[in-house]
Amino acid sequence: MAIQTRNKRKTDFSMASMSDIVFLLLIFFMLTSTLVAPNAIKLLLPQSNSRAIETPPKITISINKDLNYFLDGVQVNEETLKAGLLEKLPRQESTSIRLEADKTIPVQYVVNVLDIVNTINKKYNTKHKVILATSPKR
Predict the structure, then answer these.
(1) Closest among 94, 93, 87, 41 to 64, alpha carbons compared
(2) Mean pLDDT lowest among 20-29, 40-49, 79-88
(3) How much is the average pLDDT of 97-116?
(4) In angstroms, what CA-CA distances link 131 with 10, 51, 71?
């Protein structure tokens, strides 16, 4: 007497659930990547046609439309800006400093930053340079 089992095990694997998971992960990462803001300081940069791209700067100074100074994202006043720069430039020969200034601020605030860097250059005989960040013209 030959007895056969009715419940046979299948060796198939359904990929439908796996593709659903991959699709949901893709949507999740797409949504979360758009929420990440690279600049915490809102700036409207001046526009320029120049394409000079510098190596990543070691220091970033920002001036927003409320005329506040930021040194690497930390709000400082004009006096502590110089002390902060001296602390971040530990006897280096030359460093590129990126200046992100809102296009609505008076030029005097940009000149104040340039004067601080030039004073440091003269005092310590260094060659730090300030690069003005711009956005491309449309």
Answers:
(1) 41
(2) 40-49
(3) 93
(4) 66, 12, 14
Mean pLDDT score across all residues of the chain: 84
Residues 94 and 126: beta-carbon distance below 8 Å? yes
Parse the chain into domains and list their residue ranges.
47-136
**Matching residue, tokens 């694997």:** 13
The dihedral sign for the CA sequence 77, 113, 92, 120: negative
- Please name the amino acid found at residue 134: T
DSSP 93: S
CB atoms within 10 A of CB 86: 15
36 burial level (CB within 10 Å; 0-12, 13-18, 19+): exposed
The stretches of 1-138 forming alpha helices (DSSP H) are 16-35, 78-88, 107-124
